[in-house]
Amino acid sequence: MNQERKRLDPRRPFVLSPAGLRRIILGATGGFDASLLAAPAHTPAAKPLRLKGDPAGYLLVAAHSQRGMLDAHAHQAIAAAALLASPQQAVAVLVFGGLNEDLRAYGADLVAVLPGADEQGFAPEQELASLCEFVTRYAPAHVFMPDNDIGDGDLGRRLAVHLEAEVATHVVELKPGAVAMYWQGGAALARGPMPLVVLIAPDVVETGLPFSGAGETVAPPAAQAPPGRYQNRGLREIAASALALEEADFIVAAGNGVADIPTLEAVAAAFGAAVGASRVAVDEGKFTRDKQIGATGKTVSASTYLAVGISGAVQHLQGIKACRHVIAINSDASAPITKRADLSVVGDAQEVMTALLAELAQRNWPDTARESV
Amino acid sequence: MMPPQLKIAALVSVGRNPASGAPRAARNDVLALDAALALAPEVSVLHAGDAAPALYDYLAYGAANVEVLPLPAGADALAPLAARVAGYDLILCGQRAEAGQGSGTLPYRLAKALNMPVVSAALEITLLGDEAEIVQFLPKGQRRVVRVSLPAVIALHPLAPRAPRYVYASLRAGRLLSAPALVAAPLPASPWQSEPAVKKPQRLKPLETRQGHARLLGAIATESKGGALVREGSAAEKARAILDYLRTNRLIEF
């Protein structure tokens, strides 16, 4: 009676994955599966190309770069074009300013870079001439631009008015062939067909795409506008200490691991950075409440965030979500901030800060050089 | 010899209180009016549309009178405004209207119609002979100084550092003037359908096409950036690693 009862064989055939795990696959005869070795476990495979064959049409994206990189808002504009393009439509990107990053992950198929025309410059007539040449070259169905304050919102409106084309600004919803935007100061939502020029509001597109763009580099437009009615007289920078933390571009922040506040402030002054702090440092009375960064403090969007002695609690990481480059100095290599940071230095905060000050003091030119740049 | 007086116009619109929806003077246009009054004692304050009670607020903010250019319903405000401000040296307005479409394109269209340069996001304006020097807003604490030849259209940024004062006596003293009706081009039939904004707009995201095993693998695979970790070396070497990172990414200029 007992012998007739069906039992699972605990030693039935299995395959061994590269991670050393037994995997029981129905129908398999057992042994070592070579295909599992070829693809290491939990590593995303290279994404497939979105564009199939030669492009039959184009969608255009134009954006200004900052310090050689596009910001998240510009990435969203590229991703929007890639998501809305048909399989035969290529996404052509024109970047004003230098570019040191790969735009394939955001779906860019053709990339043209106009170095020396970044957000610091102001030459609307020249930029409009370049953009118009690009539009003539590709005859795009739509031109997508981020509606921001660093020049893209301005240039997009100039383009629409110059081409006497329809334009949708502050677009909050994109669908194939249709857009929506707020009217009446946010009380009404207006829907309509997608016009030629689409200026996209921030955070309305997801940039995690299941495909990749071809990322081919093409020649930038060579159009030259005659000297115009605008003169750029340069940038005027406000001292970081006089600036609200939310607006600062470089922040040196202190956490529980910092005992010597004057050294930290000296490091911040050497970089021309604003000083921030984590909740622990503020609670201890080392900093005023307005310096606190995180869920209960301020949300910052600096390009560079130097976290000194900050372990990186979730609430703190929430506040630095928008920071582009995070550098951590921490004595604990397994602190959560190391997962967020682009560069983590494991060591005593005080020693590294002193060494940083010594390195900065060895510069060949005086501190005033930064102001004159 | 006194320089010839510049003709300055400020374009104002009827705003909308974001909480109650009540009509009011548009905050951004009040800044434009205040900036205009700081540049010249006499400013033509123009409004295209109906003589709404909210326009009296502009009188309180310093306008001697507000000239109302009548506009039939559904007509484009560009043509009457362009006809009225032709010949002016400086035209100031807010960057974006609080009511209506608020697309922020009117300054650009007006500049094209009048063949003038246009500068937006202006914080401060200084007149230098036949040029205007403008401090422009840029994010992250940066300001850009731009010079533009007059005549020009300048759109004020909402953060322009001005403190307009509301004076009831000047509201009583000022008047709304009605200009003769001009021929306004009717707008083409609008393809836009407006509805009350109750639902949150949907984000654009890729369609999920993976199935089964691939989808579950995608759920556990995290696209971590995997930042560099500097563990070894002296404090000086670690400091140099930080400076190298800042230099390679052009985050510092030394």
TrEMBL record, chain A:
InterPro entries: DHS-like_NAD/FAD-binding_dom, ETF_a/b_N, ETF_a/FixB, ETF_asu_C, Rossmann-like_a/b/a_fold. This is Electron transfer flavoprotein subunit alpha. Residues 245-321 form the Electron transfer flavoprotein alpha subunit C-terminal domain. It comes from Acidocella aquatica. PANTHER family: ELECTRON TRANSFER FLAVOPROTEIN ALPHA, ELECTRON TRANSFER FLAVOPROTEIN SUBUNIT ALPHA, MITOCHONDRIAL. Keywords: Electron transport, Transport. The keyword Protein biosynthesis does not apply. Residues 60-207 form the Electron transfer flavoprotein alpha/beta-subunit N-terminal domain. It holds the Pfam family ETF_alpha. Signal peptide: none annotated.
UniProtKB/TrEMBL annotation, chain B:
Gene3D superfamilies: HUPs (3.40.50.620). InterPro entries: ETF_a/b_N, Rossmann-like_a/b/a_fold. This is Electron transfer flavoprotein subunit beta. It comes from the Bacteria. Residues 14-186 form the Electron transfer flavoprotein alpha/beta-subunit N-terminal domain. Pfam families: ETF. Coiled coil: none annotated. Keywords: Electron transport, Transport.
